[in-house]
Amino acid sequence: MSDIAIIHTGVGNVASLAACFRRLGRPARLVTSRQQIEAASRLVLPGVGAFGAAMKRLEELDLIETLRRRFAANQPTLAICLGMQLLGRGSEEGEYCSGIGIVDSVAKRFDDSVLVPQIGWNNVKADVDCQLLQDGDAYFANSFRWKDSDTSATSKQKSPSGAQADFTALQNDGWKIATADHGGAFIAAIERGSVLACQFHPELSGGFGNALLSRWIQKGEYQC
Amino acid sequence: MLKTRIIPCLDVDGGRVVKGVKFQNLRDSGDPTALAMAYQLQGADEIVVLDISATTAKRSHQIEVIAAIREALSIPLTAGGGIRTTADVERLLESGADKVSLNTAAVRNPSLLSSIADRFGSQCTVVAIDAVRRGASWKVVTHSGGNELALDAVDWAKQAAAAGAGEILLTSFDRDGTQSGYDLELIHQVANHISVPVIASGGAKIPRHFAEAVDAGASAVLAASIFHDKQTTVATLKAELINLGLELRT
Description:
The structure holds two protein chains of two kinds.
Chain A: E1 4-7, H1 15-23, E2 28-31, H2 34-39, E3 42-45, H3 51-60, H4 64-72, E4 77-80, H5 82-86, E5 90-91, E6 97-98, E7 106-109, E8 118-126, E9 136-142, E10 144-145, H6 153-158, H7 165-172, E11 176-181, E12 185-192, E13 195-198, H8 206-223
Parallel strand pairs in A: 1-2, 1-3, 3-4, 4-13, 5-7
Antiparallel strand pairs in A: 5-6, 7-10, 8-9, 8-11, 11-12, 12-13
Chain B: E1 5-13, E2 16-21, E3 24-30, H1 32-42, E4 47-51, H2 56-59, H3 62-72, E5 77-80, H4 86-95, E6 99-102, H5 104-108, H6 110-120, E7 125-134, E8 137-142, E9 147-152, H7 153-163, E10 167-172, H8 184-193, E11 198-201, H9 207-215, E12 220-223, H10 225-228, H11 234-243
Parallel strand pairs in B: 1-4, 1-12, 4-5, 5-6, 6-7, 7-10, 10-11, 11-12
Antiparallel strand pairs in B: 1-2, 2-3, 7-8, 8-9
């Protein structure tokens, strides 16, 4: 039995993700129940439709507290695209909706000055202290993102002038970050221990994505 | 900053890749998965697979073609051709397509676009527009050019984007298969009026054609014949375009 479990909430394309893990030689199971998720040694939270609908589905499946405990315990977990945004405090997609609240950020729509949705390959720059994330081009498909000024409101008050201040707040919470630029810097991915969250789609990012997922799988193995 | 995407397009009929001039005189040029993998290896940024099968029986291969490509491919895959309902979209996404491209069905029923975008997201909703030049403007054509509509192509692009399309795949029917270059005015007009990415299609042969399309406002450039006929490779084209100053993924 595979040790990688993908939360399958119904809507959303997990076919590419499942195919990617098969190519990496680690076929994944699709899971929906709290018991299966608690038992999973490596868990993937994929992007699933709209933010509000996804949160509602996670609530219906009674998974929110399970996920919070999982992140608090630093169990190997990967969140992708909308899955990453769900970790935040909330999103302005549709009516404001609260998220799981692991990360002190709010997802906001890209500025009108750039093409929205952001679709295509963008250059990811990883902080030097990242263990999983590296520099390279990754495939993005998103209209909302975590922008520097949209993260922690409290830290913004502490240092109102610094554009990096809010990214710093994430770093102060123990997250190592990677950024990209689309009308300004935004969070491309964050990592903390065995937890990795990517705004981009590693399963669609060719060799860059494959290598990242391999590192995430291996990182989990060192811990086990 | 986003890189310009180079997208080989596989026109598939009954499970085999074909490409014709002006959508006629189709020639057989290969196995879809083998071609898609060759293009990925050359550095393609995405693969588009359009099923142009004329009959339901022949189109029955569409799902298996997408599933077979997905199993091997690690870059984005867009499926188009014959999509009429959200159930069709769901089947293709479940088979491994990352995006779906709608054409005739979207023209007939723009609310279908909203349904698809609401359910699956704009980022996976592509609208393919085939446009034919008529004087100073362009009309939408469907059915491989067999049916010209009164609908203005630029107006339709605006309407489609407003209804939830996340990308416009814009083909010049006049230029398709001619290798005489993209219809730059068409690209410029559409890109100027919408805020979603435009994929330019139809007529590319030499690197300058691709660069011109990007200058005109295209976020991505799509081509078929020049790759299938081995006039160039994606890798060679990318190297030439980088020399022309374009930002590409390497």
